[in-house]
Amino acid sequence: MHKPIITQPTRAIDTVKLARHIKRPTTLDYIKYMITDFLELHGDRRFSDDLAVAGGVGFLDDIPVTIIGHQKGRDVKENVRRNFGMAHPEGYRKALRLMEEAERFGRPVINLIDTPGAYPGIGAEERGQAEAIAFNLYKMAGLKTPTIAVVTGEGGSGGALGLGVADRVYMLSNTIYSVISPEGCASILWRDAGRADEAAEALKLTAQSLYDFRIIDGIIDEPGGGAHEDHETTAKRIKQTVLSALDELLDLPLETLLKKRYEKYRKMGVYTE
Fold it and tell me: Which among 16, 65, 85, 223 counts the fewest CB atoms within 10 Å?
């Protein structure tokens, strides 16, 4: 799964561009190639059905799973309908509803992350955007079933973390995972979004950097010039990685699974000289 990346761009900003490529596979594209008998589930049972998050149940080979992910569009019209993959609080509450259902029925959870960030609009804030994300982090930390997250495009800030607390976290090789976008970082630091290339290097947001920092557990190499060139092969590589991880995680006693998850996140940022 992880090996030195030869085809990855040398500049971080080029990886950013690939992560945002309009033709990259979406969550529903991956589900088409990875999951059989998929049934999409809708709504948060509180406010509405957020189309920026898609999820449901199906089979990964012969394993019943719950799969959830941010959903972008393929064109302007679809992106507007999907809010460019930026979820409202009801999107995160829908995701949590599905994860808690998976916990009750003993199904592993697979989360696919691809969002520039959670939607920052007034309505979203009024309905508790920060609380919804924070509650997801809290619940996912103790979810009593194996969880796997894969960054498939952009992993932006708390919007990504709302689906990102998992036993195993992987990134496709041309994806990014960061507390802020390069443009946002450059605007804050230098009041100049045009210096996004400098910010991208400083943020260490590429898969290789995050693997070196032990933030993620592995890198899934993309075929050819990137996932946008071969959706099916990319999906197969994600599927193989997830199956390999589940082969280990499903054998762990629940107490051990939760202990290892706790230790995984406690170790982040710890270093010795």
Answer: 223
CA angle 12, 14, 20 (to 5 degrees): 110
Tokens 């996912």 — which residue?
A: 140
**Residues comprising the chain, all counted:** 273
CB-based contact 163:95 (threshold 8 Å): yes
Per-state percent for the chain, helix, strand, coil, to nearest 5? 45, 20, 35
For residue 151, with 0-12 CB atoms within 10 Å meaning exposed, 13-18 middle and 19 or more buried, which class applies? buried
| 5 pLDDT above the threshold of 50 | no
Pair 55, 91: CB distance under 8 Å: no
Which residues are CB-neighbours of 174 under 8 A, at least 6 positions away?
8, 9, 15, 18, 19, 207, 222, 226, 227
Q: In whole angstroms, what is the distance from residue 27 CA to residue 131 CA?
A: 24
Note the pLDDT tens digit of each residue in 229-262.
999 999 999 999 999 999 999 999 999 999 999 9
pTM of the model: 0.93
Identify the H or E element spanning 80.
helix 76-81
Q: Which residues on adjacent β-strands are paired with residue 109?
A: 66, 147
User: Which tokens belong to 146?
Assistant: 């194996």
Model confidence at 1: pLDDT above 60: no
Residue 184 to residue 180: CA distance in whole angstroms:
6
Which residues, listed in sequence order, are joined to residue 206 by a DSSP beta bridge? 176
Is there a contact between 33 and 231 (Cβ–Cβ < 8 Å)?
A: yes
What is the model's pLDDT at position 8?
Answer: 62
Q: What is the DSSP letter of 206?
A: B
pLDDT tier, 4 (very low <50, low <70, confident <90, very high otherwise): very low
Helices 196-203 and 182-190 pack at an angle, to 10 degrees, of 110
User: Which one, of 242, 256, 258, 261, lies nearest residue 66 by Cα?
Assistant: 242
